[in-house]
Design goal:
The chain is α+β, with helices and mostly antiparallel strands. It contains seven helices and twelve strands. A five-stranded mixed sheet has the order 1-3-2-5-4. A hairpin with a 2-residue loop joins strand 9 and strand 10. The longest helix has 52 residues.
Length: 419
């Protein structure tokens, strides 16, 4: 049954239901007609007994009584002798008849009627039910089959359209019926899902295109360095310079590949959850960049403290990306701060540089988004995207204002995603 098409299954269920209903109606009609006809016959026999009782009391019940083959009567005395009877009812009632009796003085009167007319009417009704029932059932089943087909036609139309939708035709949508019913709501929900899939596909295509563009530049520079090194004989100093330049491009490729892997793992492995001391976390990040800051004549300060739950490695990666960004594009002292704010913990990284321009803030945390000043320094535009991915994986969010970037994370165990 479960392997049959839905339309056929609905039709079979409808046919079975109609068969039960028709059978129940037929039994009800037959029983009620039989009861009504029997009650009618008994009422007429009661009237007949009243007439015979009056006849017996007046002394006229002697010999022949009026009657025919369908209606008959009989009068007996105390000894059981028949003293009066209608034709054909002297010895006893005929077969298939209904007889009522009553005691009137010293006599017993009986009135009877044939049941052949009743049985004939019941037989006619039964024949009509046996013939008309299957016909009505067949017509109802056919109507149910067509009704199921009409109800499922929009679903089939959506199925055919869905079968033709691919990545090459991602802008297409399923046809939605005009009726405000469940099928329409299903179509609207599926179209909303297709819109989300199209949006995700568009983001992935843009991500692949941007990644290809970012990878092409250092690879082209790396090839150029090697071609120049091989074009003519070089001194050891020139070769060393070429190798150092190539090494820088390789390191840039490694950083870019690692950033892409971090973003690509988003949604797969959930971050680890452990109780962390935010001050200790910030101190560890500051120590990592202390030498670099000293070389550039800058300082890194750590303020505040709090306790939170999260993945230490991922949070260090996010904070390190922010500190690296501040040292690369910012100026002055780099400040790392941790503060409790209600049920959340705010981790902030700020510097004394110009900060983000207001026009850049709406897309600051998107992949490969870079401010104009960053485009001249070789950044891939993935640092803030990684920070945002880490924050979302911890059930938090990110924000930026001026030269300050904030990770607002739940203080408790509320990891919501993977990374």
């Amino acid at each position: 049954m479960s392997r049959l098409p839905i339309r056929l299954r609905l039709s079979l269920v409808f046919a079975l239901t109609m068969a039960v209903v028709l059978a129940a109606v037929g039994v009800f009609l037959y029983a009620n007609l039989r009861s009504a006809l029997t009650e009618q016959i008994e009422d007429s026999l009661e009237v007949r007994l009243d007439e015979l009782a009056a006849l017996v009391r007046s002394g006229g019940a002697d010999g022949k009584l009026p009657g025919d083959e369908d209606r008959f009567a009989q009068v007996r005395d105390q000894s059981g002798t028949v003293v009066a009877f209608s034709p054909g009812f002297k010895s006893g009632p005929p077969e298939n008849s209904r007889v009522l009796t009553r005691e009137v003085g010293d006599f017993t009167i009986a009135a009877g009627a044939s049941l052949e007319d009743r049985d004939g009417a019941l037989a006619t009704l039964l024949a009509l039910l046996l013939v008309g029932g299957p016909v009505a059932l067949a017509l109802a089943t056919l109507a149910g089959y067509r009704l199921a087909g009409a109800a499922l036609r929009p679903v089939e139309s959506m199925r055919r359209e869905a079968a033709e939708i691919s990545s090459a035709t991602s802008g297409r949508r399923l046809p939605v019926p005009e009726a405000q019913d469940e099928v329409r709501r299903l179509g609207e929900t599926l179209n909303e899902m297709l819109a989300r899939l199209d949006e995700g596909l568009l983001r992935e295509r843009r991500f692949v295109a941007d990644a290809g563009h970012e990878l092409r530049t250092p690879l082209a520079l790396l090839r150029t360095e090697f071609e120049l090194a091989l074009r003519r004989p070089r001194s050891s100093e020139e070769l060393e310079l070429a190798i150092r330049s190539a090494t820088e491009e390789v390191e840039r490729l490694i950083r870019l590949a690692e950033a892409l892997l971090v973003l690509d793992r988003s949604g797969e492995a959930a971050p680890l959850s452990a109780e962390l001391d935010a001050r200790e976390l910030l101190d560890a990040v500051a120590r990592r960049f202390a030498a670099r800051a000293a070389e550039e004549g800058r300082a890194i300060e750590v303020h505040g403290g709090a306790t939170l739950h999260g993945d230490r490695d991922r949070l260090e990666q996010a904070l390190g990306s922010l500190v690296d960004n501040a040292l690369t594009h910012g100026g002055g002292v780099v400040r790392l701060e941790a503060r409790s704010e209600g049920d959340s913990v705010a981790l902030r990284v700020a510097d004394e540089g110009q900060g983000f321009s207001p026009d850049f803030l709406p897309q600051a945390f998107e992949r490969f988004s870079r401010a104009d000043t960053a485009r001249t320094t070789g950044g891939a535009g993935l640092g803030l995207a990684i920070v945002d991915a880490v924050a979302r994986a911890h059930g938090g969010r990110t924000s930026a204002a001026g030269a300050t970037v904030t990770l607002l994370l739940p203080a408790g165990r509320s990891l919501s995603g993977g990374l």
